[in-house]
Design goal:
Elements lengths: L1 H17 L3 H6 L5 H8 L12 E3 L10 E5 L5 E6 L4 H6 L3 H14 L4 H10 L3 E3 L8 H11 L5 E6 L3 E8 L2 E9 L2 H5 L3 H15 L12 E3 L5 E3 L4 E2 L1 E5 L3 E5 L2 E4 L6 H10 L7 E8 L3 E8 H10 L3 E9 L3 E10 L4 E10 L10 E11 L8
Parallel strand pairs: 14-19
Antiparallel strand pairs: 1-2, 2-3, 4-7, 5-6, 6-7, 8-9, 9-12, 10-11, 11-16, 12-13, 14-15, 16-17, 17-18, 18-19
Helix pairs in contact: 1-9
C-alpha cells in the first residue's frame, strides 16, 4: 500500500511539473501530453467514456478512420489515422508505424496548409509523393490517406540520425516520410516525460526472471569458458557487449569471480543475472534536477532489455579497491541511449549479495550526443 501511495504521489508531482492538471488527465488518461492535446482537438469522440477503436472524423478524412488504442490500465497510448494494416505491424513491429499515423493526424488537424509546412520545417520532417501533388499540403496529405489500401508495402531504413519510411501502393511511391531519429518526435513524449517515465516504469515492471542462454548462442572462449555470440562494441572498442560463461551440467552459468575480474565486470552489467547486487542511482533529469532511488541491478538491466535496448559495458579504471566504468543501454531503432556511470568496490566479487553499486544515470540521450558525456 505504501508503494502505491508513493507511485500516486510521484505521478501527481510529474503532472504538476508538466503543467498538466490532475483533472484533465482524470477525464481522459493519456500516456503523454501530446496525446492529451490531440484528445482536445477531437471533441466529437467521447474518449472520457473509455472509448477505444476506430471512429470516422470527417474533418480529417472521409475514407480512413481515426484509431484510438488503450493499454490494460485504460491509458491512451496511441491516436492516429489508421494508415497501416495491423498484420503489417504485427509481422514487422516498429514504432515508426504509430509515429506516421499520429503525425498525419496532427498535420491534418491543423487549420491551414502553411501551418503544416511550418510544423514540418521546425521538426525537420519531409513528405514526398510520386502520385499526388503536395503544393497544397493539406489536400495532398488527404489524397495520400484516401489512396491507402490493403496492398500498401512499407520499407523502413535508418542510420544513427535519420529515418525514412517509403509507402508503396501498387508499385508506386504513395508517400515517403523522412524524419530525424529522435525519441521525442517519434513517440510524442517530451524529454521530461520520458525521463520521469523511467522510474515509474521500473516500479511497475517489477522483478524479471533471468533467461539462460542455450548452446546455440555459445562459442568457445578460453580456458574452458564460453562466450555468447554478442561480442560487439559501441562508440569505442572499450565499450562492449561481451558475456562469458562456464558450463555446469547442461546449463551455461555467467562467470563471476575475483580471479576473472574483466569477464565478471562485463557479466555483472550485461547479462541481467541476479547476484543480489543493489544499484544506488542518482538520475540526472532535464533542468538540472536529480532523482535518487535504489533498485536491484539485475532488475535495471532486464528492464532495459525489455525495452529493446542492447547492453554495453566499458571499464575506465581498475585500482586496488575500486572499479569505475560505464554501462550503456542503447536503442538504435528509436535513436536513444541510457548512460550509467558506475563505481563500486572490488570486494563485491567475493560476496555480491547485498553489495551496492553507485550509478549516475542519464536517460534518453540522443545517440549522436554520446561523446559529450563519456
Amino acid at each position: 500500500m505504501a508503494m502505491i501511495k508513493l507511485c500516486k504521489a510521484f505521478f501527481l508531482a510529474v503532472m504538476f511539473l508538466l503543467g498538466v492538471s490532475a483533472d484533465s488527465y482524470a477525464q481522459v488518461k493519456c500516456a503523454n501530453k501530446q496525446l492529451a492535446d490531440l484528445v482536445e482537438l477531437l471533441p466529437d469522440i467521447r474518449l472520457d467514456e473509455g472509448f477505444a477503436g476506430e471512429v470516422m472524423v470527417p474533418a480529417v478524412s472521409h475514407t480512413k478512420p481515426v484509431l484510438v488504442l488503450r493499454n490494460a490500465e485504460g491509458v491512451i497510448h496511441h491516436i492516429g489515422i489508421k494508415f497501416f494494416d495491423r498484420e503489417i505491424i504485427n509481422r514487422h513491429p516498429s514504432p515508426v508505424y504509430h509515429f506516421i499515423e499520429r503525425y498525419f493526424l496532427e498535420l491534418l488537424l491543423m487549420p491551414h496548409p502553411e501551418d503544416i509546412k511550418t510544423k514540418m520545417k521546425l521538426e525537420h520532417v519531409q513528405i514526398t509523393s510520386e502520385v499526388f501533388s503536395l503544393e497544397n499540403m493539406k489536400k495532398g496529405l488527404q489524397d495520400i490517406v484516401s489512396a491507402v489500401s490493403h496492398d500498401l508495402s512499407v520499407y523502413i531504413t535508418s542510420n544513427n540520425q535519420q529515418c525514412s519510411a517509403s509507402c508503396l501502393n501498387q508499385g508506386k511511391l504513395l508517400a515517403k516520410i523522412n524524419f530525424p531519429l529522435r525519441y521525442e518526435l517519434i513517440t510524442g513524449f517530451s524529454k521530461l516525460e520520458a525521463e520521469n517515465s523511467v522510474y515509474t516504469d521500473l516500479l511497475m515492471a517489477g522483478k524479471q526472471v533471468y533467461k539462460p542462454l542455450g548452446s546455440e548462442y555459445m562459442s568457445t572462449y578460453k580456458d574452458g569458458m564460453y562466450s555468447a555470440n554478442n561480442d560487439e562494441y559501441y562508440v569505442t572498442e572499450d565499450i562492449i557487449s561481451t558475456t562469458s560463461y562456464n558450463k555446469v551440467g547442461e546449463e551455461y552459468v555467467p562467470v563471476f569471480s575475483p580471479d576473472l575480474l574483466k569477464e565478471s565486470v562485463y557479466n555483472l552489467f550485461n547479462t541481467g543475472y541476479d547476484w543480489g547486487v543493489e544499484a544506488s542511482i542518482e538520475q540526472n533529469l532535464y533542468g538540472n534536477k536529480k532523482n535518487t532511488f535504489d533498485i536491484s541491478l539485475a532488475q535495471l538491466a532486464n528492464f532495459f532489455k525489455s525495452k529493446n535496448c542492447s547492453l554495453y559495458t566499458g571499464v575506465r579504471k581498475y585500482d586496488k579497491s575500486k572499479i569505475e566504468g560505464v554501462m550503456m543501454a542503447v536503442n538504435m531503432e528509436l535513436g536513444y541511449q541510457h548512460i550509467m556511470m558506475f563505481t563500486f568496490d572490488k570486494a563485491l566479487f567475493d560476496k555480491p549479495a547485498g553489495q551496492q553499486i553507485q550509478i549516475k544515470m542519464y536517460n534518453y540521450v540522443p545517440i549522436h550526443n554520446v561523446s559529450s558525456l563519456l
